């Protein structure tokens, strides 16, 4: 039986990418793609990359009783508000791409959907909070070290993201003439994804006194995140508190051995290796008592809807990779 799907906020970048994945998913059927401002219009007239792929039209209707799962492709803060104003049947699963339910709280039952650490919980959950794009990339670079209890010093994080991370509605820092041939930083040390990053690292390490000093950059490209992280170790090299380069590489290989899309790579990374895919690639280098971790993802796929479809597959007992056989640009 096909999974029946509803999409809310379907006219934005994440909505378009989600439809692109689902129209090619072997076990999924889109029942409705909701957008009040575009109701009646062809989806492919807004998401022109779908020309020839679907005759689906946007609708202002929300027939929740006809679907198995609803994707929330809202801006942050709108999911919680929507649920206060609308009733979704209890049997319908929810996958929320906003940040509203990513932090665990007694007031909700949403599972944080990072498959590399929560696969079993995702397979059992009814409501899922999909991780943020920066958060996914930064965590995947640090999780093995947290599991080993090695995040004892402040971590320096620099990550650059493509313009699609800012959404489809044009603003001053996304239009072409400003963004091209340009770089800038924003939300220094205060980015909203830091909360979910600390939550996961603390979960694995048991406690986290170190700060995550995160500087986000706006890149002059459309999609992808390139992240570097600097971690400091204590003690003599080769001990449990200061592993060798080989020990660190083995730690990462082991941690991600069963991950469907996250892979440890033995050489320096290039962003094009993951753009248009659901992959995350991780590499680590050792310099004295410090390590530099590099992690790369596509912000719209592994950073958003690719991971959301991966989570949907797990929630419905499907092959984790179903509908996600996307290939990177080779050059």
Helix-strand layout with pairing:
Blueprint: E1 3-8, H1 13-22, E2 28-34, H2 43-46, E3 58-59, E4 69-72, H3 78-85, E5 93-96, E6 111-112, H4 115-124, E7 127-129, H5 133-147, E8 155-161, H6 176-179, E9 184-185, H7 194-205, E10 212-218, E11 225-232, H8 245-255, E12 262-264, E13 280-287, E14 290-297, H9 301-315
Parallel strand pairs: 1-2, 1-4, 2-3, 4-5, 5-7, 6-7, 8-10, 12-13
Antiparallel strand pairs: 8-11, 9-10, 11-14, 13-14
Explain what this protein looks like in three dimensions:
With 331 residues, the chain is an alpha/beta fold. Helices cover 27% and strands 21% of the residues. Strands 3-2-1-4-5-7-6 form a 7-stranded parallel sheet, covered by helices on one side. It has a 7-stranded mixed sheet with strand order 9-10-8-11-14-13-12. Helix 1 crosses helix 9 and helix 5 packs parallel to helix 7. The longest helix has 15 residues, at 133-147. The model has no long low-confidence stretch (mean pLDDT 95).
């Amino acid at each position: 039986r096909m999974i029946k799907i509803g999409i809310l906020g379907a006219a934005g970048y994440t909505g378009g990418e989600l439809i692109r994945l689902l129209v090619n998913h072997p076990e999924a059927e889109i029942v409705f793609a909701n957008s009040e401002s575009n109701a009646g219009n062809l989806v492919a007239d807004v998401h022109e990359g779908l020309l020839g792929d679907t005759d689906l039209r946007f609708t202002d209707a929300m027939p929740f009783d006809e679907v198995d799962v609803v994707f929330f492709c809202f801006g942050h803060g709108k999911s919680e508000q929507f649920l206060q104003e609308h009733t979704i049947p209890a049997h319908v699963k929810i996958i929320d791409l906003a940040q509203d339910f990513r932090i665990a709280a007694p007031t909700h039952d949403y599972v944080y959907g990072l498959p590399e650490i929560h696969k079993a919980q995702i397979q059992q959950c009814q409501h899922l909070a999909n991780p943020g794009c920066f958060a996914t990339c930064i965590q995947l670079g640090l999780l093995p070290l947290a599991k080993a209890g090695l995040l004892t010093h402040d971590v320096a994080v620099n990550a650059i993201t493509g313009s699609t991370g800012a959404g489809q509605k044009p603003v001053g820092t996304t239009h072409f003439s400003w963004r091209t041939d340009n770089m800038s930083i924003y939300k220094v040390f205060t980015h909203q994804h830091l909360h979910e990053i600390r939550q996961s690292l603390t979960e694995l390490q048991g406690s986290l006194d170190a700060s995550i000093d995160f500087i986000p950059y706006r890149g002059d490209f459309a999609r992808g995140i390139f992240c570097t992280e600097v971690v400091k170790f204590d003690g003599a090299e080769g001990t449990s508190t200061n592993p060798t380069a080989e020990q660190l590489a083995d730690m990462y290989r082991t941690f991600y051995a069963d991950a469907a899309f996250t892979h440890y790579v033995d050489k320096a990374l290039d962003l094009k290796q993951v753009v248009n895919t659901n992959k995350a690639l991780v590499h680590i280098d050792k310099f004295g008592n410090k390590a530099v971790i590099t992690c790369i993802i596509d912000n719209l796929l592994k950073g958003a809807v690719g991971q959301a479809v991966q989570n949907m597959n797990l929630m419905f007992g499907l092959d984790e990779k179903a509908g996600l056989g996307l290939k990177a640009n080779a050059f």
